[in-house]
Amino acid sequence: MLKIEQAYWLIALFLAGAAWLNLRERRWSHAGFWLVLAVLTAGGKYVLDATAAHHHLPAQLAGVGVIALAVLSPRMKRGQLVERDVSAREADAKRLGHRLFGPAVLIPLVTLLVALFGGYVVIGGVRVFDPVRMTLTGLALACVIALIAALWVTRTKPAAGLAEGRRLLDTLGWAALLPLTLAALGGVFAATGVGAAVSDLVRMMIPVNSALACVIAYGLGMVLFTVIMGNAFAAFPVLTAGVGLPLLIHLHGANPAILGSLGMLTGYCGTLFTPMAANFNIVPVALLELPNQNDVIRAQWKTGAMLLVVNLALMYFLTFRF
Amino acid sequence: MTTLLHWLPLLGVLVVVAGFALRFNPVPVVVVAGIVSGLAAGKSIGEILALIGNSFVSERALLLFVLTLPAIGVLERAGLREHVTNWIARLRGLTLSRLLMVYLAIRQILAMLGLYDVAGHAQTVRPLLAPMAEGAAEKRGSPLNTQERNDVRAFCAATDNIGRFFGEDVFIALGAVLLIQGFYSQHGIELEPLQIALWALPTAIAAFMIHAIRTVLFARRIAGNAPNSATPALRPDDAGKSESC
Predict the structure, then answer these.
(1) Which domain holds residue A35?
(2) Rounded CA gap, B111 and B95, in Å?
């Protein structure tokens, strides 16, 4: 049976491989970072099982590991990683053309197939896919299939899978960890009463009995926090713990999937307004040699504002209905 | 005193906001915010470490996206980025509004497939889209002045951002979808990633329509600004005039 736990082991294996390649090149911070992450990923089930049995030491050690990641992450400088010669890539691109998209399309396609039909796949009376987090198991399977297809289409040796994967992983660096740490922060906020404090603050400011007022507070809060922080991911746990969960989902019965999706996209509208999102709004100003720092924001804020209104309307009309 | 204790955990939020606003490395900022809100809630060091450790490992599904990297890396080694670049270069000859709309659609669809880094400001906007858009705009019959040239370039960058943002949320392996799912599962709500991705579709469609309309209006303005705009044959948004590739 295919389980999500096997996907975690696969991730750990890949991260350990990336750590090994970095170790050989004496890039100590990268090697240490990916190695600690590999151990945390592989040992996750052990930690959670131990906690359930009231053994707290493994979880505390995991906490120390997380702090180690936080210490290592500012030391991960972006170095130049060797890439295949550009003329060789051009030649392959000409030869392979749109076939290069094939393996990439397999990732969402196989994931979708597993999510929709995985429950019906039975061999010898045994379900092939464990129903727990089946979509994510499907995603891991899809990535393996896509890698095999990519190696086959491009006639590349399997070792390149690790080398190229590691190149992209090192390019991402600590950014690869950002969604995970922010989701984890959501858990910490819940356990330490941050959500309750934020929602009490909001209760003082708006009439919480009005669903519309709560929708607007959540949406505009996402925009405001995204504008200040330059990152909708960071705004999401704060606003959803403080407003989304207690007021919209628990008090007014909003649909969490719709609320989460539209809440995040409302935050993305905020990303279009803010110079804090430097990668998207300031870097192109320099690249395109524009005279004013806010030229790109000026070109896009109207689309963002109209989309913000659309999102708030979608949220109000969809989230209480489904 | 009790009221003060109730508000104290908000310090954790303050750390996140200040840390991001001051552009510190986000990973330590988030970890420090966790420690601060734990201390503010009166927890011991041991409890805080265990809380952070448990929260972190129970979210390890968010690392699943790294499994897409070997496949995408192998494709990039065989010229995926070069192919996308050549493909976009083939749009040369389209009118300004069509060029930007087709680019917006390509960018959204690539992002929906998880290929959000094969295009971008450095990869495609600066070397390709911006010069092509300038060329398309000048088909009105007169060169762009400095202000117009800057407007066209900025609009290209804006188009790239909008295409990426409102496409990537539909891809289930992306951080956004997994972050939403992980956040809720910490609070005892189990969701299917597919549901979350699916509800991003209406906004993706709305984003395309809104920006496409703005693109048409923008192209019309640039075309109308030509000093000799009396030559109607050269209006970029005339239907049916584009040479296809």
Answers:
(1) 4-78
(2) 24
Relative to beta strand A122-123, strand A126-127 is: antiparallel
Is A115 within a domain? Answer: yes
Q: For residue A112, give the chain B residue with the closest CA.
A: B194
Confirm whether the ipTM is greater than 0.90: no
DSSP class per residue in B130-149: HHHHHHHHGGGSS---HHHH
Neighboring chain A residues of B195 at a CB cutoff of 8 Å: 257
Q: Is the dihedral of CA B68, B74, B77, B83 positive or negative?
A: negative
More confident residue, B244 or B46: B46
| Residue pLDDT, tens place only, B24-63 | 888 999 999 999 999 998 899 999 999 999 999 988 988 9
Domain C-terminal end among A107, A140, A156:
A156
Choice between B115 and A17, residue whose per-residue pLDDT is larger: A17
A307 Cβ neighbours under 8 A, 6+ residues apart: A269, B166, B203, B206, B207, B210
Encode pLDDT of A65-122 as tens digits: 999 999 999 998 776 778 888 898 989 989 998 899 899 889 888 988 888 888 898 8
- Give the residue from A62, A78, A94 where a domain finishes: A78
Is A207 found in the same domain as A312?
yes
Residues A74 and A47 in one domain: yes
Q: Is A47 in contact with B53 (Cβ distance < 8 A)?
A: yes
In a shared domain, residues A216 and A300: yes
Same-domain status, A311 and A220: yes
- CB–CB of B53 and A92 under 8 A? no
Same domain, A242 and A126: no
Q: Verify whether the Cβ–Cβ distance A288 to B153 is below 8 Å.
A: yes
- pLDDT grade for B232, boundaries at 50, 70 and 90: very low
Q: Which A-chain residues 61-90 have CB contacts (< 8 A) with chain B?
A: 61-67, 69-71, 73-74, 83-84, 86, 89-90
**Structural domains counted in chain A:** 3
Instruction: Give yes or no: residues A231 and A313 share one domain.
Output: yes
Judged by CB atoms closer than 8 Å, whether chains meet at B32 and A260 is answered as no
